[in-house]
Write a structure and sequence with these properties.
The termini are far apart. It is built from 13 helices and 25 strands. The protein is an alpha/beta fold. It has three domains: 215 residues, Spore Coat Polysaccharide Biosynthesis Protein SpsA, Chain A (Alpha-Beta Complex), CATH 3.90.550; 114 residues, no CATH class; 61 residues, 2-Layer Sandwich (TTHA1013/TTHA0281-like), CATH 3.30.2390. It binds uridine-5'-diphosphate and magnesium ion. The site of uridine-5'-diphosphate has 15 residues, from strand 1, helix 3 and helix 7.
Length: 427
Amino acid sequence: MEPLISVILTSYNKPLFVGKAIESMLAQTETNWELLIMDDNSNSETVKVIKKYIEDPRIYYFNSNIEHKDRYKTTRYATIINDALKMVKGKFISYLTDDTTFLPERLELMSQYFYQHPECNILYSSQLVKQVNIEFREIRRFIRQAKQPLKHAAFTVDHCSVMHRSDILHEIYSVYGNYWDDNPDHWNHGDAAFWKRLNEKNIFFPINKVLDITYKTPHSFQTLFNSLPSNIIEGTIVKGSSEDIYYIQNYSRKKITEEIFALFKFSRSHIVHLPDPILYKIPESEPLGLEILPNFIVVHAHDMNSYFYLESGQKRLIVDWSTMKQLKFNFENVVKLDGKLLSSLDDGPLLTTMNQKNFIPPGRKLFRIPSKLWICFDGIMSEIDPRVAKRFHLEKDSVSISSAFLQKYKKGDRITPLGSYTSFNII
Ligand code: UDP
Ligand code: MG
């Protein structure tokens, strides 16, 4: 017997949650369904959870085997949904993400509605959105109400709240040559792009009842995307959904082992979590180590009895203690290095106190005039939006300056949060 409803579950690295999504299918009062689990090459922890459920003959498991280097090239969930749509057998289609659960009567109520309303091709229901913290404790909740028929469902309806007839797919395919548009421009609104296609011939009918609950975690793409500028700031320690940690240097990401992390006295609280499509778009280069030193740290060699600030691959001699203090360099973070290694580095401009005529500010330092924040790279000052400064943990140890001081320096482009994923670059 063909299944009545095909549900497509997209999964990527949510080991703590994906099991709940699958169990919400097993708890459905309507049991005539198939579940296509489209896993986007998740970590073994996630796959282990999924494998517990695949004995059920209604559940199918597919792994995209996508390589990380290719992850940013399309809107991944749209790509794997398209793969699934070529295989579905149900009369009705629904979508589920790995951080969403369906309420038990969802499939029954929605399929019944289709039988009672032959004129309806697409249905959507109300959705409960729960924002949770890292420990899954709820921070806030709200309901997206399904109140009226929609001619423009884009940006209003989440894809986990929709069910549509499978008949309408042929038409989309004949016009577009695929179903969902997986152009990476649509990464954070892939469903909206599909709704636009569906809305050309159809309206979305409402069921004003909460039939799914979606969780926004600190690691949801939307959350991670917040306050990121168009350029990842040099010298940032970054992490995606895997355990690997990288250092951003010269347009690339350099892996940091635990040993090197400790050696350079990096702090876990400084790690910036990035969405994987953004992280993997940054090319990977040789790991950070003693051959390839990080910038923007203060180093010291016993035998040289001096302190240096590393910048642009050079060492800048910090002329005295008061400079250290004025620029708020933390003595506890000074890294001890071998004298020979330090001598092998070229000398950069001296780092003096700020009142010296030719003072060149240290790179990546945050400067503050009463209402604005500035950051300096290669002697060029750029205003930085406070949200970005916060996201990159730059506010700590910021240094106060006057507007007269600021006037002495060339100005770069303002660093502001970005709206669109595609114009993402690194500096
Ligand atoms: N996803 C995917 N591949 C990826 C990243 C995400 O298939 O590389 C899927 C993920 O499993 C989820 C959907 O895309 O089903 C939306 O991702 P997420 O929940 O992180 O985003 P948000 O809730 O912030 O929109
Ligand atoms: Mg999500």
